[in-house]
Amino acid sequence: MRDVDDAEFVEFVDGHARELRRTAYLMCGDWQRAEDAAQDALVKMYVAWSRLERSGALRAYAHRAVTTAVVDQSRRPWRREVGTGSLPDPRHDPGHDPMGDVDRHLAVVRALQALPPRRRQCVVLRYFVDLSVEETAQHLGIAPGTVKSQTARALEQVRDALQEQGVNIELEEQL
Amino acid sequence: MNERMSDLLDRASDDAGAPLGFGGDAVLRRARARRRRRHGVAGIGLAAASVAAVLVTTQLLGPARTDTQGPVTSRTTQPPTPSSSSGMPGITPREQAITDQCARLHLPAPAVHVPSGQDGIRLPAKGAKIQDTSASGPAARFLGSWTIDAYVQDDHGVTATFVNPGHTRWASCDVDTKGIEGGNQIWTASLPSGPVPQSWYGPNGFRHQGSTVSWAQICAVAEGKVCGHELFAGALARYAGVKSARVDAPDGTVLTPVFGRYTYVFRHAEQRVARDRPADDMQPMHSMPVTLLDADGRTIIRYDYFPAYLLPHHCPASGGC
Questions:
Q1: Rounded to an integer, what distance in angstroms lies between the CA atom of residue B297 and that of residue B293?
Q2: I need a labelling partner for B60 at 20 to 30 A (CA). Which of A20, B15, B44, B53 fits?
Q3: Is the Cβ pair B22, A86 closer than 8 Å?
Q4: Cα diameter, chain B
Q5: Residues of A30-49 as b/e, b for ≥16 C-beta within 10 angstroms?
Q6: CA distances from A144 to A132, A133, B66, B157, B292 (A)
Q7: pLDDT tens across A138-166, in order?
Q8: In terms of C-beta distances under 8 Å and separation of at least 24 residues, what long-range contacts does A160-165 make, across chains too?
Q9: Cα–Cα separations (whole angstroms), residue B128 to B113, B212, B217, B224, B316
Q10: Interface test with A, best of B1, B2, B5, B36 (most A CBs within 10 A)
Q11: DSSP class of residue A128?
């Protein structure tokens, strides 16, 4: 790759890495895994940088690559290990505010983790990355109708999961 | 309450400005190395294909071996000698030595809460005494594939932390070099992630960071029944945005932990108890506050941590050691 491409790549990474880490976090619910996934996705992007740059869809591609990297991570054997040193569950702690901001955020992340990977990808790409139905379909290689149906089911599942965790949120669907 | 999904996701993924652990240059270096490796693998593949082609050709065109020659004796291949070396790239000889020492230690059995005699205590309560059950679990040979994250060495020994390849678990290891009973120990725990929790209380009602015994006071055998000198060997997980920490030891010494990428460690020995103290005197447990600081030196949070007290093997469960 040319030096000028390298410079542009570095600039892209510096400008988008945090946003990509957030996307990865929504996919996996773990900041360190998210950081690993963001790096993995960016490394893969480097190989196809010239082609991607010409297509003008760098940001969308990067976010899709991050969601895929998280799904790939979860298939690796070492991701299946079960930790025993679990953190204290804040819901059982004295003085815990069940509707506190932190708890609500954690509930949202937990609800996302309960979704099948494809539905999670649809929700994150549609509502966090703000891709259209068509863009999401194109990047995931599925039909727009499938994106709509997967997203609708995901939203319903998230709403039910949040209610089960005591977080009463009415989701305003934007299909 | 009406919430837009996009707003929910935006807030749920708020990283509170936590800095990244990598930059564009680092990713570029990694990507270039990966590309070089790929090209290298492609070259090796091509060479292997060429060798295979030559061998096939030789087999097809070369003279046939007669049965009188007997079977070709297979050359015995010595299995690779188990090495204590982790073989991690870029590791220094000292780090390798620490890794080897820690890999020989045995994981503890689950901690036993001494005063009540109840099992299953996961979180150290304020002033809890936990019987040292080290060396009763399997050896920590898995450390050979883990990465050493941080370590600190003093006259008494070394405290080191390791992180597994997936960055999901970490291990804390204390190696004793001066005959401190209970000074050799290793345990592992899940590696927490994300920003420092701002509201976090354990089941015992005290605010602290660790979810396992992450702090040990170790009495030297030579001190007799009362431990005049105590060694505080601390190993704690690091959260996003934490750049440094200050630890206030019971004697007023301000400690500056050594930071790794995922954890931080420190060691401190002090004379905390009078030598003529009665054996059955229950000394109060002092708080050891940890102040976590961000990149600008601002306080993120101050944990008022009460360390668990690790009893050496020879100490009676009733205390007074």
A1: 5
A2: B44
A3: no
A4: 92
A5: bbbbbbbbbbbbbbbbbeeb
A6: 10, 6, 67, 62, 48
A7: 888 899 999 999 999 999 999 888 888 77
A8: A161/A107, A161/A110, A161/A111, A161/A114, A162/A107, A162/A108, A162/A111, A165/A107, A165/A110, A165/A111
A9: 7, 12, 11, 21, 14
A10: B5
A11: I
CA B210 to chain A, closest CA, distance in angstroms equals 8
What ipTM was estimated for this complex?
A: 0.82
Answer positive or negative: Cα dihedral of B266, B272, B278, B280: negative
With contacts defined as CB-CB under 8 Å, which chain B residues touch A105? 11-12, 14
Q: How far apart are CA B108 and CA B310, in angstroms?
A: 12
Looking at residue B106, the DSSP 8-state letter turns out to be: B
**A residues 76-105 lying closer than 8 A (beta carbon) to B:** 76, 78-79, 81, 83-88, 90, 92-96, 100-102, 104-105
Touching A: B residues 129-148, CB under 8 Å? none
Q: Which of A5, A14, A129 is nearest to B9 (CA)?
A: A129
